[in-house]
Batch of 2 targets.
Target 1
Amino acid sequence: MQSDKGFFGRFGGSYIPEILHASQQALLDAWNQARVDVDFLADVDRELQQYSGRPTPLTPCPNLTRELGGAQVFLKREDLNHSGAHKMNNVIGQGLLVKRMGKKRIIAETGAGQHGVASALIAARLGLECTIYMGARDIERQYPNVFWMKQLGATVVPVTSGGQTLRDALDEALRDWSADPSGSHYLLGTACGCAPYPEMVAEFQSVIGREVRAQSLQQFGALPDAIYACVGGGSNAAGIMLPFINDQSVELVGVEAGGRGPAPGDHSIRLSDDLGSPGIAQGFATMFLQDDQGQLMETHSIAAGLDYVGVSPILAHLNDTGRVRMTAANDDEVMHAFLALLRLEGIIPALESSHAVAGALRDIPAMSPDKKVVINISGRGDKDIFNVASAVKDAEFGPFLQRYLARELQA
Ligand SMILES: Cc1ncc(COP(=O)(O)O)c(C=O)c1O
């Protein structure tokens, strides 16, 4: 989906400080040339295949299908990308663009840490310096990812302002970019921010939907009847959905983080239930969670990667036009969906992706058995072991950590 001068309906645009205008224009020019350059696109394709392991499979789920007694379930396995999430598709694209622009340093922000790890990996592979901003609260929730970023040679900067989550990390990354606009590239991890980021990130992620299209035709001889994806910033959702945007027979469903419930600060529901309102922040216009004074609100989700106060202008627009149906799943439903996939299909999805599963589990029993549903498994759940261990109240995990710590302190 092409923007109209950076706008998608009433959302998007570019609301940035004067100091960033020149580097934003340079990025825009570089992207506009690269996106139609067959050599660049071939380089991206090669790295997606040889480094990240694409194409990722479309996996049928016979046990889940039998259990639900409705439509047939298929999973798009972005968890099988190198580094365990769809974030890799975008960093490969932007990383190769950075090389093309001749810059030597990347700045990134991260919530769940998946984009941070992916950025650190691509920086190592392409020989770039890398600084990653991460909310101090997210660092606590996703420390294993922080550990890997550091081992990969990245500098991880804890952000202690505001709610200490993704939104605050994004502010700091923008500040860094403003301080060094010509030497550094801001490698934004989702389809948000000023133009051309939403469109560029969505385009790099559209490889997901293009593969689903080809795989569906090959594996069951038709397009899917419905596609479900979780919506944090909106990049995996835009990536799987955009290649189907003109296929009206394919229902597109985005699932936001319902968190602990609908009270302010307990969730990250911007589009469903009209809980967000239009605003301009962090360089672009979209639906934000904000109070009567226009102040951005705190958010919560069991999944750090969905805990964002804004949303892609592309999804906000598709929600406006009715092309995407938005819904939300709360933390309990998400844990139920997570365990269902684990035990019925032997797949450990990220808690973010489990939102998409939860949204689909709600609808599938009412669908007829000849229908096909594709759920995007945007990432794998290894990183969530701490959160899951406490959610399932595993009796052994805490004592194991204590024993481990005691040994480390003795050594
Ligand atoms: C596994 C996974 N899925 C989904 C998301 C949400 O991002 P987006 O909405 O941009 O796909 C994240 C973000 O960190 C993630 O790590």
Note: Residues 87-101 form the longest helix (15 residues).
Target 2
Amino acid sequence: MHQLKQYSVAETLEKDLGDPLDPNNIMSFKQVVDIDETEEFPHSQIEWLYNWKLQHYYVPAECGGEFTSFEEFVAFVRVLSRRDQTIGIAFTTLFWSFITWMSGSDEQKQKLANYIKNEQGTMCLGYSEREHGSDLVGGDLTAKKVSGGYILNGEKWPINRATISGISYILAKTAPEGGAKCLTLFMVNKRELDPEKYYNLPKILTHGIRASDMSGIGFKDCFVPDSMRLKNEGDGLEIALKGFQITRTLCAAFSLGAADTALRTTLNFASKRIVYGKTVFDLPQPRQTLVDAFLDLLICDCETIGSARGFHVVPEQFSVWASVVKYFVTTQLETMINNVYVVLGSRFYMREEHDWGIFQKVLRDNSIISMFDGSTVVNLHALILQLRPLTKYRSRRKSNTMAEIQGRLETIFSLEKPLPTFTPTELELFGRGIDDPLQGLEIALQQLEDLKQTSDLDEQVLENLLQLGNLVLEELDNHDQLIANSKFEYGHDQSPELFEIAKKYCNLHAAAACLHMWLYNRTILGDFFAKGEWLVLSLHRLLRTIRHLPYCLSEIYVENTAQELLKLYKEDKLFSIVPFQLAQSQSPEDKPYATSGLQLKA
Ligand SMILES: Cc1cc2nc3c(=O)[nH]c(=O)nc-3n(C[C@H](O)[C@H](O)[C@H](O)COP(=O)(O)OP(=O)(O)OC[C@H]3O[C@@H](n4cnc5c(N)ncnc54)[C@H](O)[C@@H]3O)c2cc1C
């Protein structure tokens, strides 16, 4: 496979963290499960990451750091999360710094960069309140203007790293009468506050990510200087919503890491456990479940990596794209983890026994990803509000629009192409109906047609792809028709049906992302990727949730995909369209999961 340099940070981090199956390693499954049992914050692991200087990759190059692309970022957050989402999430609250990179003054940026790089500084996001979760405008924490600053009063809860962090991004009400301009965002530096005027709330006991600093923060007549305000009074909601466009997309990396471990640890079992004289992996139904899980990862990869690159090319489209990724990837992989636990059998529920009980921890930890940073319904709702403009824009595309979309799609999806620097100032609250991946679907179909002239592709694969691709187009046309004829309202009282329609839009979006990813990278991501059988199976998998299709398109494609999955597993490579090298396992003596005696009793 061609070496893509944007994956080298992740590969090096992987190597240095070592095999997670070796209990002596800093973030081994044994260590992270032990930490989870104590529920104590993982200080040593976080310090290890700071000493490795990973924090530099959270600071953009123009602010003196090493961050250059979201694609690179997603890859190394995935590496952290495949070992432990608790640590991955705890360290990655650093990413809230993007609020400052996006909206801070030069002085604020400089101060923050220094704090992160040289003082092991970190931050938390204080948006939610006990009485007002998703309803940011309904918040009660107030900031009253006084000479030289503001007086804060109120509490934020539940907040990850509220206690163990130096900076809190606090969304406060500056206009009691409400409205879109009633909020102001502060980058509150605790070290510069009167310690008598703020307090931390007790640790919250959670179902998963138990070792997190899950707490809250409160202010009582607390003075914060004007220098801690981001942009202008009243700009808080706009900054918050634009910041979410960045972080919601990146949440996908947490899910991808967890899903890799869920699948890998299940394979570890299924390839060794003997039932009825053969391995679990050799039974048709579990084999299909594991192949489907692998396909889910590949599909989510196309959507996530596409969006991570898309940020650099079309930031103005992310009011749509971020909602699609946050909804689709996190829920698809949550379901995938639930599907594979059936194959792992009873061990999925045990807090020891198989790979130190990492699966049950993954299951618990991962279930928060689709909830925080805007829950599933909040993201679908945000998408619903844009469905009509999306449909209108699509119906008005002209040939020059298509040519522009094609140019952008190529930069977004060609992994070898350099990306422009991310410009957060170009994020928009509403994307004016533009959504390149789906609006460029006809371009992909034409590219498939053109491939008929080349000889390197299996004719049947191409035929399948054309058929399935045209079904995606048919479904998209139906969708547009439905939206055009529907009663559409702004606000929160959206019909349950519209939520289902929005889900379907996300599904079609993922199908388009898979097509583009394959078309632009056919020759650089290895033979398995190039052959396209996985793409046939993936499109079929996505379409099957929308319309009636035969259960199986090709047993040969399934078998070849199963073989690829086993190969990646044996070679310790990431389950991904970019299967980079993971830390090599020392291949401990393969432990059988049953003796024949036990089998007879079962
Ligand atoms: C472990 C954990 C970590 C967290 N970390 C942070 C953090 O660091 N910073 C932070 O600010 N917050 C954080 N949160 C808070 C989290 O973002 C909120 O819990 C989330 O926004 C949902 O809020 P809520 O549960 O209060 O639900 P509510 O807003 O009270 O909503 C209740 C229910 O109403 C329905 N609903 C809400 N909106 C809509 C809609 N538009 N359309 C249809 N139905 C809707 C849904 O069913 C929803 O579950 C964290 C939460 C947890 C559990």
Note: The CA atoms of residues 114 and 121 lie 9 Å apart.
